[in-house]
Write a structure and sequence with these properties.
The protein is mostly helical. It has helices at residues 27-105, 112-125, 141-144, and strands at 3-6, 13-16. The protein is rod-shaped, with a radius of gyration of 41 Å.
């Protein structure tokens, strides 16, 4: 007695000789079953490829959204830091202007060197100018405030 099995475990189809029909006579049925299994496998692989492409597309969209959110957060954080630095700059500038006007009113030239120095440091600290200072280049201006 000859037996032929197609498939795996519970999906297995078995063809064998019977009392009235030999396996050889069932060959067209066996081939049709094999063709059906191959077609199902091909369709399953195509669905897997399509599902993978869709998953990758969604992941790319999520990455782009996350990058846009991160970029927006960092942009706002820089804006926030600049505003705080500007606020502290204005305090320093007002103080500088008060010292400068007091010196002029009193005809006091003793603060001239300090005023020259302070003006340079104000320009360095000003968030709209962002001028470099040879001695303070490696200082984080936002850490000062």
């Amino acid at each position: 007695m000859l037996c032929f099995k197609i498939g795996e475990n519970w999906k297995c189809t078995e063809y064998s000789d019977t009392e009235h029909v030999k396996l050889e006579e069932k060959i067209p049925k066996v081939l049709a079953k094999i063709e059906a299994i191959v077609q199902e496998e091909r369709e399953w692989k195509e669905q897997c490829v399509i599902a993978k492409m869709e998953r990758e597309r969604k992941e790319e969209i999520e990455r782009q959204i996350k990058k846009a959110k991160d970029d927006e957060y960092h942009k706002f954080k820089d804006f926030y830091k600049s505003a705080h630095r500007w606020h502290h700059y204005m305090i320093l500038k007002n103080y500088f202007e008060m010292i400068e006007s007091t010196s002029k009113e009193n005809n006091d030239d003793s603060k001239k060197d300090w005023l020259d120095w302070a003006k340079i440091k104000l320009d360095w600290f000003n968030p709209t100018l962002d001028i470099e200072d040879e001695l303070l280049n490696d200082i984080d201006k936002d850490a000062i405030v």
